[in-house]
Write a structure and sequence with these properties.
Layout lengths: L2 H14 L4 H8 L3 H8 L7 H11 L3 H6 L6 H9 L2 H4 L5 H8 L2 H18 L2 H9 L10 H11 L5 H13 L8 H12 L2 E4 L10 E4 L4 E4 L5 H20 L1 H8 L5 H20 L2 H11 L3 H8 L3 H7 L14 E6 L4 E6 L16 H4 L8 E6 L5 E13 L2 E15 L17 H4 L1 E2 L73
Parallel strand pairs: 1-3, 6-9
Antiparallel strand pairs: 2-3, 4-5, 4-8, 6-7, 7-8
Length: 507
Protein backbone atom coordinates (compact mmCIF):
# COMPACT_ATOMS: atom_id res chain seq x y z
CA UNK A 1 0.00 0.00 0.00
CA UNK A 2 1.56 3.25 -1.11
CA UNK A 3 1.95 5.73 1.74
CA UNK A 4 1.65 8.55 -0.83
CA UNK A 5 -1.89 7.40 -1.69
CA UNK A 6 -2.85 7.12 1.98
CA UNK A 7 -1.53 10.61 2.70
CA UNK A 8 -3.25 12.12 -0.35
CA UNK A 9 -6.55 10.48 0.57
CA UNK A 10 -6.38 11.73 4.16
CA UNK A 11 -5.68 15.22 2.87
CA UNK A 12 -8.69 15.00 0.56
CA UNK A 13 -10.92 13.89 3.43
CA UNK A 14 -9.76 16.90 5.43
CA UNK A 15 -10.30 19.35 2.58
CA UNK A 16 -13.74 17.91 1.78
CA UNK A 17 -14.79 18.77 5.30
CA UNK A 18 -13.20 22.23 5.24
CA UNK A 19 -10.87 21.46 8.14
CA UNK A 20 -7.53 23.12 8.83
CA UNK A 21 -4.37 21.09 9.30
CA UNK A 22 -3.79 22.58 12.74
CA UNK A 23 -7.27 21.58 13.96
CA UNK A 24 -6.99 18.01 12.68
CA UNK A 25 -3.45 17.68 14.10
CA UNK A 26 -4.68 18.85 17.49
CA UNK A 27 -7.44 16.24 17.50
CA UNK A 28 -5.04 13.47 16.46
CA UNK A 29 -2.50 14.68 19.06
CA UNK A 30 0.32 15.18 16.55
CA UNK A 31 2.12 18.30 15.33
CA UNK A 32 0.87 20.18 12.23
CA UNK A 33 4.31 19.64 10.67
CA UNK A 34 4.00 15.87 11.11
CA UNK A 35 0.50 15.85 9.60
CA UNK A 36 1.82 17.89 6.69
CA UNK A 37 4.53 15.28 6.05
CA UNK A 38 1.94 12.48 6.22
CA UNK A 39 -0.30 14.22 3.69
CA UNK A 40 2.68 14.66 1.37
CA UNK A 41 3.54 10.97 1.62
CA UNK A 42 6.84 11.62 3.40
CA UNK A 43 5.89 9.81 6.59
CA UNK A 44 4.40 6.38 7.12
CA UNK A 45 1.00 6.34 8.86
CA UNK A 46 0.89 4.10 11.90
CA UNK A 47 -2.25 1.97 11.98
CA UNK A 48 -3.52 3.33 15.34
CA UNK A 49 -3.14 6.86 13.98
CA UNK A 50 -4.90 5.96 10.73
CA UNK A 51 -7.73 4.29 12.64
CA UNK A 52 -8.12 7.40 14.81
CA UNK A 53 -8.14 9.65 11.73
CA UNK A 54 -10.79 7.55 9.97
CA UNK A 55 -12.98 7.65 13.05
CA UNK A 56 -12.59 11.44 13.16
CA UNK A 57 -13.53 11.76 9.48
CA UNK A 58 -16.39 9.26 9.85
CA UNK A 59 -14.89 6.91 7.26
CA UNK A 60 -15.10 3.11 7.24
CA UNK A 61 -11.81 1.25 6.82
CA UNK A 62 -13.03 -0.92 3.94
CA UNK A 63 -14.45 2.06 2.06
CA UNK A 64 -11.24 4.01 2.64
CA UNK A 65 -9.05 1.21 1.33
CA UNK A 66 -11.32 0.87 -1.71
CA UNK A 67 -10.53 4.47 -2.68
CA UNK A 68 -6.83 3.62 -2.88
CA UNK A 69 -7.19 1.62 -6.06
CA UNK A 70 -7.43 -1.95 -4.70
CA UNK A 71 -11.14 -2.57 -5.20
CA UNK A 72 -10.92 -6.12 -6.60
CA UNK A 73 -10.36 -8.67 -3.82
CA UNK A 74 -8.35 -10.97 -6.10
CA UNK A 75 -5.99 -8.13 -7.05
CA UNK A 76 -5.48 -7.13 -3.43
CA UNK A 77 -4.92 -10.72 -2.37
CA UNK A 78 -2.50 -11.40 -5.22
CA UNK A 79 -0.48 -8.32 -4.34
CA UNK A 80 -0.28 -9.42 -0.72
CA UNK A 81 0.71 -13.02 -1.53
CA UNK A 82 3.46 -11.77 -3.85
CA UNK A 83 5.15 -10.00 -0.95
CA UNK A 84 8.21 -11.80 0.51
CA UNK A 85 6.86 -11.36 4.02
CA UNK A 86 3.58 -13.11 3.09
CA UNK A 87 5.56 -15.92 1.47
CA UNK A 88 7.16 -16.72 4.81
CA UNK A 89 3.68 -17.50 6.20
CA UNK A 90 3.75 -20.70 4.13
CA UNK A 91 0.06 -20.59 3.15
CA UNK A 92 -1.04 -23.71 1.28
CA UNK A 93 -3.52 -23.75 -1.66
CA UNK A 94 -6.43 -24.60 0.64
CA UNK A 95 -5.71 -21.53 2.78
CA UNK A 96 -5.60 -19.28 -0.30
CA UNK A 97 -8.80 -20.80 -1.70
CA UNK A 98 -10.56 -20.14 1.59
CA UNK A 99 -9.52 -16.49 1.44
CA UNK A 100 -10.69 -16.11 -2.15
CA UNK A 101 -14.07 -17.52 -1.19
CA UNK A 102 -14.59 -14.58 1.17
CA UNK A 103 -14.02 -11.41 -0.93
CA UNK A 104 -14.75 -8.99 1.89
CA UNK A 105 -12.45 -10.82 4.26
CA UNK A 106 -9.73 -10.98 1.59
CA UNK A 107 -9.92 -7.23 0.96
CA UNK A 108 -9.82 -6.43 4.66
CA UNK A 109 -6.94 -8.84 5.40
CA UNK A 110 -4.91 -7.47 2.48
CA UNK A 111 -5.55 -3.90 3.61
CA UNK A 112 -4.52 -4.68 7.18
CA UNK A 113 -1.44 -6.54 5.92
CA UNK A 114 -0.21 -3.53 3.96
CA UNK A 115 -1.01 -1.16 6.80
CA UNK A 116 0.96 -3.43 9.11
CA UNK A 117 3.93 -3.27 6.74
CA UNK A 118 3.78 0.51 6.71
CA UNK A 119 3.50 0.67 10.49
CA UNK A 120 6.58 -1.51 11.01
CA UNK A 121 8.74 1.25 9.59
CA UNK A 122 7.96 3.23 12.74
CA UNK A 123 9.86 0.65 14.81
CA UNK A 124 13.20 1.70 13.33
CA UNK A 125 13.94 4.55 15.71
CA UNK A 126 12.83 2.75 18.88
CA UNK A 127 14.64 -0.52 18.19
CA UNK A 128 17.87 1.16 17.13
CA UNK A 129 17.88 3.27 20.30
CA UNK A 130 17.29 0.16 22.37
CA UNK A 131 20.16 -1.65 20.64
CA UNK A 132 22.41 1.34 21.31
CA UNK A 133 21.68 1.07 25.03
CA UNK A 134 19.87 4.42 25.23
CA UNK A 135 16.67 5.03 27.12
CA UNK A 136 14.08 4.71 24.34
CA UNK A 137 12.13 7.78 23.37
CA UNK A 138 8.99 6.76 21.59
CA UNK A 139 8.57 10.31 20.25
CA UNK A 140 11.01 12.25 18.09
CA UNK A 141 14.64 12.68 19.02
CA UNK A 142 16.04 16.20 18.45
CA UNK A 143 17.74 15.10 15.23
CA UNK A 144 14.39 13.76 13.97
CA UNK A 145 12.73 17.10 14.67
CA UNK A 146 15.48 18.98 12.82
CA UNK A 147 15.17 16.69 9.81
CA UNK A 148 11.40 17.15 9.73
CA UNK A 149 11.88 20.91 10.06
CA UNK A 150 14.20 20.97 7.05
CA UNK A 151 11.93 18.74 4.97
CA UNK A 152 8.86 20.80 5.85
CA UNK A 153 10.64 23.89 4.49
CA UNK A 154 12.07 21.89 1.57
CA UNK A 155 15.50 22.89 2.93
CA UNK A 156 15.04 26.32 1.34
CA UNK A 157 15.01 29.56 3.36
CA UNK A 158 14.52 32.65 1.16
CA UNK A 159 15.11 35.13 3.99
CA UNK A 160 18.62 33.76 4.50
CA UNK A 161 19.24 33.75 0.75
CA UNK A 162 18.29 37.43 0.58
CA UNK A 163 20.43 38.34 3.61
CA UNK A 164 23.45 36.60 2.09
CA UNK A 165 22.89 38.34 -1.24
CA UNK A 166 22.74 41.77 0.45
CA UNK A 167 26.09 41.18 2.15
CA UNK A 168 27.65 39.98 -1.10
CA UNK A 169 26.45 43.09 -2.91
CA UNK A 170 27.45 45.47 -0.09
CA UNK A 171 31.01 44.14 0.09
CA UNK A 172 31.30 43.33 -3.62
CA UNK A 173 32.14 39.68 -3.06
CA UNK A 174 32.97 37.81 -6.26
CA UNK A 175 32.38 34.23 -7.29
CA UNK A 176 35.48 33.01 -5.43
CA UNK A 177 35.35 34.34 -1.88
CA UNK A 178 38.49 34.44 0.29
CA UNK A 179 38.62 33.93 4.05
CA UNK A 180 40.27 37.35 4.44
CA UNK A 181 37.24 38.93 2.75
CA UNK A 182 34.88 37.17 5.14
CA UNK A 183 36.96 38.25 8.13
CA UNK A 184 36.65 41.83 6.85
CA UNK A 185 32.86 41.42 6.56
CA UNK A 186 32.59 40.11 10.11
CA UNK A 187 34.61 43.05 11.44
CA UNK A 188 32.95 45.85 9.45
CA UNK A 189 29.39 44.56 9.23
CA UNK A 190 28.98 42.88 12.61
CA UNK A 191 31.66 44.59 14.71
CA UNK A 192 33.56 41.42 15.69
CA UNK A 193 37.30 41.02 15.33
CA UNK A 194 38.62 37.80 13.81
CA UNK A 195 41.82 36.50 15.41
CA UNK A 196 43.86 33.33 15.17
CA UNK A 197 44.55 31.28 18.28
CA UNK A 198 48.21 30.75 19.26
CA UNK A 199 49.68 27.67 17.62
CA UNK A 200 50.96 26.48 21.01
CA UNK A 201 47.41 26.01 22.29
CA UNK A 202 46.30 22.41 21.56
CA UNK A 203 42.57 22.16 20.98
CA UNK A 204 39.97 20.28 18.99
CA UNK A 205 37.87 23.45 18.76
CA UNK A 206 38.01 24.99 15.27
CA UNK A 207 36.36 28.33 16.03
CA UNK A 208 34.87 30.14 19.01
CA UNK A 209 32.75 33.30 19.32
CA UNK A 210 33.18 35.42 22.46
CA UNK A 211 30.13 37.70 22.66
CA UNK A 212 31.55 39.74 25.55
CA UNK A 213 34.94 40.46 23.93
CA UNK A 214 33.30 40.62 20.49
CA UNK A 215 35.92 38.35 19.00
CA UNK A 216 35.86 35.35 16.68
CA UNK A 217 38.79 33.03 17.33
CA UNK A 218 39.77 30.54 14.64
CA UNK A 219 42.24 27.78 15.35
CA UNK A 220 45.20 26.79 13.17
CA UNK A 221 45.00 23.76 10.94
CA UNK A 222 41.87 24.68 9.00
CA UNK A 223 42.17 24.58 5.23
CA UNK A 224 41.11 27.68 3.30
CA UNK A 225 37.87 26.01 2.26
CA UNK A 226 37.02 24.95 5.82
CA UNK A 227 37.97 28.36 7.21
CA UNK A 228 35.71 30.13 4.72
CA UNK A 229 32.77 27.95 5.68
CA UNK A 230 33.31 28.48 9.42
CA UNK A 231 33.47 32.25 9.00
CA UNK A 232 30.36 32.11 6.83
CA UNK A 233 28.55 30.14 9.56
CA UNK A 234 29.59 32.71 12.16
CA UNK A 235 28.16 35.45 9.95
CA UNK A 236 24.99 33.35 9.75
CA UNK A 237 24.75 33.24 13.55
CA UNK A 238 24.99 37.02 13.70
CA UNK A 239 22.30 37.40 11.04
CA UNK A 240 19.99 35.08 12.97
CA UNK A 241 20.66 36.88 16.27
CA UNK A 242 19.68 40.16 14.63
CA UNK A 243 16.67 38.96 12.62
CA UNK A 244 15.30 36.39 15.08
CA UNK A 245 14.34 34.18 12.12
CA UNK A 246 15.10 30.94 13.97
CA UNK A 247 13.04 32.02 16.98
CA UNK A 248 10.03 32.82 14.80
CA UNK A 249 10.27 29.51 12.97
CA UNK A 250 10.59 27.49 16.15
CA UNK A 251 7.71 29.38 17.78
CA UNK A 252 5.47 28.50 14.82
CA UNK A 253 5.94 24.77 15.52
CA UNK A 254 7.32 24.32 19.06
CA UNK A 255 9.66 21.29 19.32
CA UNK A 256 9.41 18.63 21.99
CA UNK A 257 13.06 18.74 23.01
CA UNK A 258 15.08 21.61 24.45
CA UNK A 259 18.07 20.86 22.23
CA UNK A 260 16.11 21.14 18.98
CA UNK A 261 15.92 24.94 18.85
CA UNK A 262 19.71 25.31 19.06
CA UNK A 263 20.26 22.56 16.51
CA UNK A 264 17.91 24.34 14.12
CA UNK A 265 19.85 27.57 14.64
CA UNK A 266 23.11 25.78 13.82
CA UNK A 267 21.60 24.29 10.65
CA UNK A 268 20.29 27.69 9.55
CA UNK A 269 23.70 29.30 10.20
CA UNK A 270 25.37 26.62 8.07
CA UNK A 271 22.71 27.19 5.42
CA UNK A 272 23.63 30.89 5.40
CA UNK A 273 27.29 29.98 4.93
CA UNK A 274 26.36 27.97 1.83
CA UNK A 275 24.26 30.83 0.48
CA UNK A 276 27.09 33.31 1.09
CA UNK A 277 29.79 31.20 -0.58
CA UNK A 278 27.58 29.71 -3.30
CA UNK A 279 24.98 32.37 -4.24
CA UNK A 280 21.74 30.82 -5.46
CA UNK A 281 21.40 32.43 -8.91
CA UNK A 282 25.03 31.98 -9.95
CA UNK A 283 25.26 28.48 -8.46
CA UNK A 284 21.95 27.37 -10.00
CA UNK A 285 23.10 28.57 -13.40
CA UNK A 286 26.36 26.62 -13.18
CA UNK A 287 24.53 23.56 -11.85
CA UNK A 288 22.34 23.56 -14.93
CA UNK A 289 25.29 24.15 -17.27
CA UNK A 290 27.47 21.40 -15.75
CA UNK A 291 24.55 19.00 -15.19
CA UNK A 292 25.22 18.70 -11.46
CA UNK A 293 28.93 17.98 -11.86
CA UNK A 294 30.00 18.48 -8.23
CA UNK A 295 33.73 18.27 -8.90
CA UNK A 296 33.51 20.95 -11.56
CA UNK A 297 31.33 23.14 -9.31
CA UNK A 298 33.92 22.85 -6.53
CA UNK A 299 36.60 24.10 -8.93
CA UNK A 300 34.46 26.95 -10.28
CA UNK A 301 33.62 28.33 -6.83
CA UNK A 302 36.78 27.17 -5.03
CA UNK A 303 34.67 25.44 -2.42
CA UNK A 304 34.82 21.96 -0.91
CA UNK A 305 33.20 18.99 -2.62
CA UNK A 306 31.01 18.41 0.44
CA UNK A 307 29.77 22.02 0.55
CA UNK A 308 28.92 21.96 -3.16
CA UNK A 309 27.17 18.59 -2.86
CA UNK A 310 25.18 19.77 0.16
CA UNK A 311 24.19 23.01 -1.60
CA UNK A 312 22.46 20.92 -4.28
CA UNK A 313 19.89 20.07 -1.60
CA UNK A 314 19.10 23.79 -1.07
CA UNK A 315 17.85 24.54 -4.58
CA UNK A 316 14.20 24.80 -3.59
CA UNK A 317 13.24 28.19 -5.02
CA UNK A 318 9.81 27.62 -6.67
CA UNK A 319 10.84 29.94 -9.52
CA UNK A 320 14.15 28.16 -10.13
CA UNK A 321 13.89 24.70 -8.56
CA UNK A 322 16.63 22.15 -8.76
CA UNK A 323 16.20 18.40 -8.99
CA UNK A 324 15.08 16.93 -5.61
CA UNK A 325 18.17 15.35 -4.07
CA UNK A 326 19.18 13.26 -1.10
CA UNK A 327 22.50 13.59 0.72
CA UNK A 328 24.40 11.15 2.92
CA UNK A 329 27.77 11.32 4.65
CA UNK A 330 29.22 8.13 6.15
CA UNK A 331 32.56 7.04 7.54
CA UNK A 332 34.44 3.88 6.69
CA UNK A 333 32.65 1.99 9.49
CA UNK A 334 29.26 2.87 8.02
CA UNK A 335 28.28 5.46 10.63
CA UNK A 336 25.99 8.16 9.23
CA UNK A 337 26.88 11.68 10.36
CA UNK A 338 24.78 13.70 7.90
CA UNK A 339 21.61 12.83 6.01
CA UNK A 340 18.85 14.62 4.21
CA UNK A 341 16.25 13.32 1.78
CA UNK A 342 14.00 15.28 -0.55
CA UNK A 343 13.50 12.22 -2.73
CA UNK A 344 11.70 9.89 -0.34
CA UNK A 345 14.73 7.61 0.05
CA UNK A 346 14.96 6.25 3.59
CA UNK A 347 18.11 6.08 5.68
CA UNK A 348 18.64 4.37 9.06
CA UNK A 349 18.90 6.48 12.18
CA UNK A 350 22.41 5.41 13.14
CA UNK A 351 24.82 2.77 11.90
CA UNK A 352 24.00 -0.39 10.03
CA UNK A 353 22.79 0.92 6.70
CA UNK A 354 22.63 -1.25 3.59
CA UNK A 355 26.12 -2.24 2.32
CA UNK A 356 24.78 -2.33 -1.25
CA UNK A 357 24.33 1.48 -1.33
CA UNK A 358 26.71 3.45 -3.53
CA UNK A 359 27.90 5.56 -0.61
CA UNK A 360 29.42 2.42 0.99
CA UNK A 361 30.66 0.85 -2.25
CA UNK A 362 32.63 4.05 -2.90
CA UNK A 363 35.25 2.98 -0.35
CA UNK A 364 36.20 0.11 -2.70
CA UNK A 365 37.31 2.59 -5.39
CA UNK A 366 38.16 5.80 -3.50
CA UNK A 367 39.90 7.43 -6.45
CA UNK A 368 36.80 7.45 -8.70
CA UNK A 369 33.15 8.35 -8.32
CA UNK A 370 30.87 5.36 -7.72
CA UNK A 371 27.58 5.47 -9.63
CA UNK A 372 24.60 3.14 -9.55
CA UNK A 373 20.88 2.76 -9.94
CA UNK A 374 19.29 1.25 -6.84
CA UNK A 375 15.90 -0.34 -6.26
CA UNK A 376 14.33 -0.50 -2.80
CA UNK A 377 12.12 -3.35 -1.55
CA UNK A 378 8.99 -1.28 -2.25
CA UNK A 379 10.01 -0.92 -5.91
CA UNK A 380 11.11 2.73 -5.78
CA UNK A 381 14.23 3.41 -7.84
CA UNK A 382 17.02 5.95 -7.35
CA UNK A 383 20.24 7.04 -9.00
CA UNK A 384 23.11 7.71 -6.61
CA UNK A 385 26.75 8.75 -6.94
CA UNK A 386 29.36 8.88 -4.20
CA UNK A 387 32.93 10.04 -3.68
CA UNK A 388 35.43 9.44 -0.87
CA UNK A 389 36.83 12.61 0.71
CA UNK A 390 39.97 12.43 2.86
CA UNK A 391 41.67 14.96 5.14
CA UNK A 392 44.95 13.56 6.52
CA UNK A 393 46.34 14.79 9.83
CA UNK A 394 50.06 14.68 10.53
CA UNK A 395 50.48 12.67 7.35
CA UNK A 396 48.04 9.99 8.51
CA UNK A 397 44.55 9.19 7.23
CA UNK A 398 43.80 7.30 10.43
CA UNK A 399 44.57 10.40 12.49
CA UNK A 400 42.55 12.52 10.09
CA UNK A 401 39.11 12.04 8.59
CA UNK A 402 37.74 9.93 5.76
CA UNK A 403 34.15 10.23 4.57
CA UNK A 404 32.09 9.06 1.66
CA UNK A 405 29.72 11.73 0.35
CA UNK A 406 26.67 10.25 -1.35
CA UNK A 407 24.21 12.28 -3.42
CA UNK A 408 21.30 11.06 -5.49
CA UNK A 409 17.85 11.59 -6.92
CA UNK A 410 14.87 9.62 -8.12
CA UNK A 411 15.64 7.44 -11.13
CA UNK A 412 13.29 9.40 -13.39
CA UNK A 413 15.27 12.60 -12.68
CA UNK A 414 18.70 11.05 -13.30
CA UNK A 415 18.69 12.34 -16.90
CA UNK A 416 19.54 15.78 -15.50
CA UNK A 417 22.82 14.53 -13.99
CA UNK A 418 26.05 14.21 -15.93
CA UNK A 419 26.92 11.12 -13.88
CA UNK A 420 24.03 9.12 -15.36
CA UNK A 421 24.41 10.09 -19.02
CA UNK A 422 26.15 6.84 -20.02
CA UNK A 423 24.22 4.46 -17.77
CA UNK A 424 21.25 2.55 -19.25
CA UNK A 425 17.97 2.92 -17.38
CA UNK A 426 15.46 1.18 -19.60
CA UNK A 427 14.92 -1.91 -17.41
CA UNK A 428 15.71 -0.93 -13.83
CA UNK A 429 13.53 -3.69 -12.35
CA UNK A 430 16.14 -6.09 -13.69
CA UNK A 431 19.38 -4.09 -13.74
CA UNK A 432 19.22 -1.84 -10.66
CA UNK A 433 21.12 -2.93 -7.56
CA UNK A 434 18.71 -4.35 -4.94
CA UNK A 435 19.17 -2.24 -1.80
CA UNK A 436 17.34 -1.55 1.46
CA UNK A 437 17.48 0.60 4.57
CA UNK A 438 19.27 -1.72 7.00
CA UNK A 439 19.43 -5.47 7.54
CA UNK A 440 17.28 -5.36 10.67
CA UNK A 441 14.41 -3.75 8.77
CA UNK A 442 14.90 -5.05 5.24
CA UNK A 443 12.24 -7.15 3.56
CA UNK A 444 14.58 -8.78 1.07
CA UNK A 445 14.70 -12.54 1.38
CA UNK A 446 17.43 -13.01 -1.25
CA UNK A 447 20.26 -10.68 -0.16
CA UNK A 448 23.63 -12.44 -0.16
CA UNK A 449 25.19 -9.88 2.21
CA UNK A 450 22.61 -9.78 4.97
CA UNK A 451 24.42 -9.24 8.28
CA UNK A 452 21.53 -9.96 10.65
CA UNK A 453 18.03 -11.41 10.59
CA UNK A 454 15.25 -8.95 9.86
CA UNK A 455 12.73 -8.02 12.51
CA UNK A 456 10.17 -8.18 9.70
CA UNK A 457 10.45 -11.96 9.31
CA UNK A 458 10.07 -14.80 11.71
CA UNK A 459 13.61 -16.15 12.16
CA UNK A 460 12.97 -19.79 11.28
CA UNK A 461 15.90 -22.18 11.04
CA UNK A 462 16.07 -25.42 9.07
CA UNK A 463 19.23 -27.43 9.64
CA UNK A 464 18.64 -29.36 6.40
CA UNK A 465 18.36 -26.29 4.16
CA UNK A 466 21.21 -23.82 3.62
CA UNK A 467 20.70 -20.58 1.69
CA UNK A 468 23.55 -18.46 0.34
CA UNK A 469 23.23 -16.31 3.47
CA UNK A 470 22.60 -17.72 6.93
CA UNK A 471 20.24 -14.90 7.93
CA UNK A 472 18.03 -15.03 4.83
CA UNK A 473 14.50 -16.13 5.75
CA UNK A 474 13.14 -19.35 4.27
CA UNK A 475 10.20 -18.85 1.94
CA UNK A 476 7.37 -21.31 1.38
CA UNK A 477 8.62 -24.37 -0.47
CA UNK A 478 12.30 -23.78 0.36
CA UNK A 479 12.35 -25.96 3.46
CA UNK A 480 13.62 -29.50 3.21
CA UNK A 481 11.09 -32.33 3.14
CA UNK A 482 10.76 -33.95 6.54
CA UNK A 483 11.29 -37.68 6.07
CA UNK A 484 12.20 -40.02 8.87
CA UNK A 485 15.72 -41.29 8.44
CA UNK A 486 16.63 -44.87 9.34
CA UNK A 487 18.17 -45.34 12.73
CA UNK A 488 21.96 -45.39 12.62
CA UNK A 489 23.55 -47.93 14.99
CA UNK A 490 25.61 -46.40 17.76
CA UNK A 491 29.32 -47.20 17.24
CA UNK A 492 30.69 -49.66 19.73
CA UNK A 493 33.94 -49.21 21.55
CA UNK A 494 36.94 -49.68 19.37
CA UNK A 495 35.31 -48.32 16.22
CA UNK A 496 36.34 -45.08 14.63
CA UNK A 497 33.28 -43.12 15.75
CA UNK A 498 34.90 -39.89 16.93
CA UNK A 499 33.51 -36.59 15.73
CA UNK A 500 36.22 -34.51 14.17
CA UNK A 501 34.14 -31.43 13.58
CA UNK A 502 35.55 -28.54 15.54
CA UNK A 503 33.69 -25.69 13.91
CA UNK A 504 30.75 -23.88 15.45
CA UNK A 505 30.16 -21.17 12.86
CA UNK A 506 27.18 -20.53 10.65
CA UNK A 507 28.86 -21.92 7.54
Amino acid sequence: MDKDLIGQRLRQLRLDRGLKQADVARTLEISPAYLNLIEKGKRTVQFPLLWKALQYFGQELEAFMGTLGEKRPDDALAKMLDDPLAQTLDLDPDDIAALKAEPKAATTIAALFHLYKNTRAQLDTAVQKLSAGDVPRMDYAPSDEVRDFLETHRNYFPELEEAALRIRETYKLGRRVLSDQLADVIEKHFGFKVETAPTSEPSTVVRRVDLDRRTVTVFPGLTEQALKFQLGAVAGLFVLDKSGLHDRMVAAAPPRHNETARLIKIHLANYFAGALLLPYEDYFREVQRTKYDVEQLAQIFEASYEACAHRLCNLGDPKRPGVPMHFLRVDIAGNISKRYSATGMKFPQNAGSCPKLAVHAAFLTPSVITRQYSIMPDGSTFFCFAKVITQPLQGSLVRGTTYSIGVGTRAEDARHLVYAQDMPANDLRRTAIPTGVSCRFCERSDCNQRAAPSYKFAFSVDEYTKKDNFFSPLLGGERAERTKLPTVPTPTSGTNGTNGSGGNGHG
